[in-house]
From TrEMBL:
Protein name, as recorded: Bardet-Biedl syndrome 12 protein
InterPro entries linked to this entry: BBS12, Cpn60/GroEL/TCP-1, GroEL-like_apical_dom_sf, GROEL-like_equatorial_sf, TCP-1-like_intermed_sf
Biological process, per Gene Ontology: chaperone-mediated protein complex assembly; photoreceptor cell maintenance
Superkingdom of the organism of origin: Eukaryota
UniProt-listed Pfam families: Cpn60_TCP1
GO molecular function (one): ATP binding
GO CC annotation terms, alphabetical: chaperonin-containing T-complex
SUPFAM superfamilies: GroEL apical domain-like, GroEL equatorial domain-like
Source organism per UniProt: Sousa chinensis (Indo-pacific humpbacked dolphin)
Amino acid sequence: MVMACRVINKRRHVGLQQLSSFAETGRTFLGPVKSSKFIIDEECHESVLISSTVRLLESLDLTSAVGQLLREAVQAQNNTYRTGTSTLLFLVGAWSSAAEECLHLGVPISLIVSVMSEGLNSCIEEVVSLQVPIHNVFDRMVNTKTFSGPETFSVGVYPFLQIPSGTGLIQKERDLKDVASQSLAIYSLSGRPVKSPQLFRSQDKVEADENTSQTPQTLKNSLLADTRCRKSVLTHSRHFSRTGNNQWISKPDGVLEQLSAATPKTYRCDDLVELEVGLSHGGHSSMKLVDEAVRLQYQNAGMQQGSCTVPFLFDISRIFTCCLPGFPETFSCVCPGYITVVSISSTALIKELQNQPIRIVLVEGDLTENYRHLGFNKSASIKTVSESLKVQQDGSEELWTDHVLQVLIKFNVNLVLAQGNVSERLIEKCTDSKRLVIGSVNGNVMRAFAEASGAVQVTYITQVNENCVGSGVCATIWRSIPFDAADEINRMAIMLKTEGIKLVTVVLTSPVTAQVQTKEDTFWTCAYRLYHALKEQKVFLGGGAVEFLCLSHLQILAEQSVNKGNQGCSGWLHNTSSWLASSVTQYRPTVLKLLANGWRRYLSTLLYNTASYSSEFEAGTFIQHHLQNATDSGSASSYILNEYSKLNSGILNSDISDKLEQIPRVYDVVTPKTEAWRRALDLVLLVLQTDSEIITGLEQTQINSQESEGFLFL
């Protein structure tokens, strides 16, 4: 499918240029505000609507070797973490351009690989300072409110925080008290004082006077002007000590704590709703469904207050989605049990079965006449005779179907779940005999029904005996469906439940069929963000904080390399030749600056995508102001933490609401994010070290100067 065309200069590294071109197509997916794309097939003129990096690469015809490598890298990230693919794709493009520029400047390939790898590893070590520990978020679940994120968010203040414009966001009173206890003047980040002097009372006269300072003229420069003009008792560096300074320390349990004359302000997360809001990244409706699923699992596990004996663990393997295109949005919900779709012709059967307990059989593989298990290799010279079926070699599917039906009748089975495909003829005959057969069932669903009903999974229907049959399953029609919707899709949703089953189904509906896939992808992204955060028991301060720290850190490393020459790299090149050592001294600052430029482009694109700035250049200028402030502070990480402590906001805000209680924190998952960085750089360095092109079957005379440029079609 053709999406774009870019001129490829064959005199430069073709593979890196291809990576940059492929990555360019997904830049609008970066950040909380994503722009959907239509992918059009040139041959049949069909189109598909996509809203994620994974769907984009699935739709593109990536036949080149570089395209295949890129697709595999994105799929590996998605299959493992289900998040971080947009970051991976963007950084692939940014760092491909950086590597290509290094080659153009004559930097040796081995040096590019070494310095870029060293730089990224150093960044990953540096951002550990921005990790926030998670503690006991389920302890107060029964008494806390549920997730009620706002319908709309003003996300133009990215990257350090997205600010709600509605009033539905939950912000804890303890956050307000924590901010009130800090010894600093309280400002809204729009440059205006907070209108609650009793709650946000300043700690000394100097700060009280500063509350009346002049308001900046523009919102974008308000925070910058505020931090430059007023005298704050906060110090930006933990490496310097002055009277009254605030300092950040890391406690043994990992909590970030700010030392001050007042009550210490600590960064830790011990509330589920706060964590979910911080990880939603604009997908508030999806995260609300995730919250409901977690709470339903909590109830099913019997973890009510006062009766908890073991810690509750969020089991994402027991959560499933059921997509119903053509149904109203209001039908989206979370339900216990297993919800799936069957043919609308089964309506009468479901109504007859819903008032009685059902016996169930679970089949691991396909339920077809010619199915054989994976270890069975049929030889052409051997005739297979099944004694149990007593069929001859010319036996037809009809005879097999009749035998399967006889087995089900013998053991009084009314429900069959198969993990693989099911014979259409068998489904028809079973429906006529008041028996329901459902195929393509997830393996985790099969195991859950086996545990709850007592059924034992079998490979072939001939293996069924009384001990393999489960009982106590209930089948009901999920809910009444509008006639026009049901008639349009010719399908109906049913619910299968049994006592003690640990399954939760999230029903996703939309009247627009093209949006259902996007809703499902967004739901799973939110669910896996929460899952990984709870599993690791830590998150990053989000909204671009870690990327900003990486940018600042790499710039400092580059400046140190310039100032100290070879001293900054002597530790990792002590065994190398003098030629390489001299090359490192010459080129290391350049490589680090180009690597840092990838982070700059990342942050600029985030700001631009949220429509906060009219151009990426303007966004880059805003970022540069903060970089200068971070450099002047002496410690970029302390600068970020101090700025984050101001009204729970982030340092790159340009349009903040006056209502403090509406400002949530933004969090990022740790391992998925850093692994996306690693995969991106690994792919770039892999392509960098390959030949730019392989020419076969052409004589040198056939290659002329007119072929120095070509076109890459996406």
